[in-house]
């Protein structure tokens, strides 16, 4: 495998009409534009602040964008290999358009990311979410992740004040 995702990735037999390709800087505006609508919970527009342009400049080669036959955004995964812990890969954001859900699209995005990170020598993949994002917790459990935390918040393990006062996070970790 080359060191970078190729610009256009292989089609997926389960999603033959969708195009998978490496993320590019020009994708930034439309990806942040869908975070509020796709996350579907009040206040989630502010999550867009967690995805600045730098991810599309400096983590593009390990991030994927999926488009439908009309060129509309159908899904994306923003991930990278840890610079400080090279054996660790990290999924920063994943999103699938509501009408494309439960078809295995996020599973494909994750499995491809796992494969690419394994090929680079990673042994573990991590991610986080908020205690309120039950859908993300269910998805990550289905993908074989363990939920981690130092306490229990809203009936799930969570790290208290992980990202600052009141900013509790559920940890996800999975061996590769
Ligand atoms: C979470 C999300 C990415 C899942 O995408 P998806 O394409 O619908 O997921 P998939 O169809 O690939 O499902 C993969 C597995 O997760 C499970 N899963 C997915 N959504 C689920 C849900 N809402 N409830 C329970 N399980 C779910 C599926 O059952 C499947 O398990 P299986 O393969 O063992 O049957 C999507 O719902 C989404 O974009 N949500 C809004 C954004 C978000 O919360 N992102 C994650 C936090 S960063």
Automatic annotation (TrEMBL):
<dbReference type="InterPro" id="IPR000182">
    <property type="entry name" value="GNAT_dom"/>
</dbReference>
<dbReference type="Pfam" id="PF00583">
    <property type="entry name" value="Acetyltransf_1"/>
</dbReference>
<dbReference type="InterPro" id="IPR017255">
    <property type="entry name" value="AcTrfase_GNAT_prd"/>
</dbReference>
<dbReference type="InterPro" id="IPR016181">
    <property type="entry name" value="Acyl_CoA_acyltransferase"/>
</dbReference>
<protein>
    <submittedName>
        <fullName>GNAT family N-acetyltransferase</fullName>
    </submittedName>
</protein>
<feature type="domain" description="N-acetyltransferase">
    <location>
        <begin position="18"/>
        <end position="176"/>
    </location>
</feature>
């Amino acid at each position: 495998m080359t060191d970078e995702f190729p610009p256009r990735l292989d089609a997926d037999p389960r999603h033959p009409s969708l195009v998978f390709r490496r993320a590019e800087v020009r994708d930034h505006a439309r990806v942040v534009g869908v975070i509020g609508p796709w996350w579907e919970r009040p206040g989630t527009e502010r999550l867009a602040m967690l995805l600045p342009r730098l991810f599309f400049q400096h983590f593009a080669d390990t991030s994927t964008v999926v488009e439908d036959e009309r060129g509309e955004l159908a899904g994306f995964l923003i991930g990278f290999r840890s610079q400080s812990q090279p054996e660790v890969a990290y999924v920063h954001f994943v999103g699938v358009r509501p009408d494309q859900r439960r078809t295995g699209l996020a599973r494909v995005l994750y499995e491809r990311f796992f494969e690419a990170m394994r090929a680079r020598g990673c042994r573990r993949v991590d991610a986080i979410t908020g205690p309120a994002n039950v859908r993300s917790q269910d998805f990550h459990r289905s993908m074989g992740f363990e939920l981690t935390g130092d306490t229990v918040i809203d009936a799930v393990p969570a790290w208290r004040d992980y990202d600052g006062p009141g900013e509790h996070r559920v940890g996800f970790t999975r061996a590769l």
